[in-house]
Amino acid sequence: MSDAPRRATVGLLLSHPAHFIAFGAGSGLSPKAPGTVGTLWGWLSFVAIKAALGTGAHADLIWGGILVIGWFVGCWACTHTARSLRVADPGSVVWDEIWAFWLMLWIIDPVDWRGQLVAFAVFRFFDAAKPGPVGWADQLFKLKPGQQIGWAQGLGIMFDDLIAALCSMLILAIAVAVRQGGVSAALMG
Known about the structure:
Elements: H1 10-15, H2 17-22, H3 34-53, H4 57-85, H5 95-108, H6 113-129, H7 132-140, H8 151-179, H9 183-188
Helix pairs in contact: 3-5, 3-6, 4-5, 4-8, 5-6, 5-8, 6-8, 7-8
């Protein structure tokens, strides 16, 4: 068996459920900006799932379950797919973007499409540029020379996007606080 990296293909996507999940139902196969395309797929699928679930405590409970299960399934799928591709953090693996953006949209809901668009832009900035804590999280589980791709790389694929989502939500919260009279007014009132 060759150690050379494999290409993400439709055949590989359809060969195992882990690949279908990790490649975001094919959105990760985009030849340009697969992370952005995966995040767009995450946005579209969030809107569709939210419409099916409705709102309220029951819907929130289901979303909580989806996100918890999605984290663990995502770690498994990302690990399996990274091993199959023989790349520790393949760009075509986009479940991490989908899951993290679902988390963001669920937490900031209810917002209209304009608020979701701003969330999309801020998240894409943090995920792509990896400033500060996101860069730290991205390096935390990197493959060391001679090390095999394992669960730590799958966890790392998911973890840096979790941190990107948390940083994005912090920026959005500060922006909302400033818009509503400043951070000190938001903290005091």
